[in-house]
Specification:
single chain, 314 residues, Spore Coat Polysaccharide Biosynthesis Protein SpsA, Chain A, 2 domains, eight-stranded mixed β-sheet, 11 helices, 8 strands, 14% strand
């Protein structure tokens, strides 16, 4: 590694939910990996677990000053947990990995070596994925949709094992299912991105939290991502354009209704165009109202979706 990377501080962020059986083996593996790495901190974010995950995390934090723990009062989702980790991280380089031990901590040095080549984001690619067929198929479908929609060609945007130079992840708002689109958001900021194949292991304990609903959420978050990048600071412009189009179509519809009446002797009752014009004008007014509301919300709403009940080691 280059000297500047060796001097960098690493923050490894691990969100988890009801992974009691995986916590201690995961930490044993990770602590071995950290020996050969630059100064590091490991931030476990417990996403409101209902098992004894919190107690096991407290025990690990008491025995190692590198370990920090954030405990949520509620189950807010993986994106919120990762966002809380980023907010509390002090590292120049931020690494994400899952808490289910399917990611291999031994791949972290490889991520850093690739980052050292001048990239800003290194995304893991579970080339030999060890999951059930349906889950793998849904993931491939989601990745194709992301690639086609965004133009960012990655095989596996959903792999949690990723390394970021911190400025490119700190500017991202962690909402919805954004954790699956982190490379996309970073690329839109100008980050240099690549991917490397990483080891993927079968789950040996705990229960998967993945389902078909994730595909729908990803699609909705892609729409949100496009809106966020282009119109976040000016939602009124977006809704204003829709209102202008709607008004324009309403005007054309009304003009064509008048042409039919005066040139072709068609009564207004015989054509739905006047009703269509009225509906388009009403739609335009609704769009303008939505634009005003969205603008006000953007300026006033800054609430988090989670509550931290305890922070350990900070």
């Amino acid at each position: 590694m280059k000297t500047d990377l060796l001097r960098s501080k690493l923050s490894v962020i691990i969100p988890l939910y009801n992974e009691s059986a995986n916590i201690e083996p995961l930490w044993q593996e990770l602590s071995v990996t950290l020996v050969a790495l630059p100064p590091s901190e490991v931030i476990f974010v417990d996403d409101g677990s209902t098992d004894d995950s919190a107690e096991k995390l407290r025990h690990i934090a008491q025995g190692d000053t590198r370990v920090k723990v954030i405990l949520f009062a509620n189950n807010a989702g993986q994106t919120a947990a990762m966002g809380a980790g980023v907010e509390h991280a002090g590292g120049d380089i931020i690494i994400f990995m899952d808490g289910d031990r399917q990611n291999d901590s031994a791949d972290i040095p490889r991520l850093l070596a690739k980052l050292d080549e001048g990239y800003d984001v290194i995304s893991g690619w579970r080339k030999e994925r060890q999951d059930a067929f349906l889950r793998s198929a849904l993931s491939r479908l989601a990745n194709r949709i992301v690639s086609m929609t965004t133009g960012i060609k990655l095989h596996d945007t959903g792999c949690s094992l990723k390394a970021f130079r911190s400025p490119f992840v700190r500017r991202i708002e962690f909402i919805g299912e954004v954790h699956r689109l982190l490379p996309v958001y970073a690329a839109w900021q100008g980050a240099r991105i690549t991917e490397i194949p990483v080891n993927h292991r079968p789950r040996v304990a705990g229960v998967s939290k993945y389902g078909f609903s994730r595909i729908v959420k990803i699609l909705l978050d892609l729409l949100l991502a496009q809106f966020t990048v282009r119109w976040r600071r000016r939602p009124m412009y977006f809704f204003g354009m829709l209102a202008t189009v709607s008004l324009g179509l309403g005007f054309l519809s009304l003009m064509w209704a008048l042409v039919l009446k005066f040139w072709f002797a068609t009564t207004l009752i015989q054509t739905p165009l006047p009703l269509l014009s009225a509906m388009l004008v009403i739609l335009a007014m609704q769009m303008l109202s939505m634009g005003i509301v969205a603008d006000l919300l953007m300026r006033t709403n800054n609430r988090k979706s989670y509550t931290i009940v305890e922070s350990i080691g900070f």
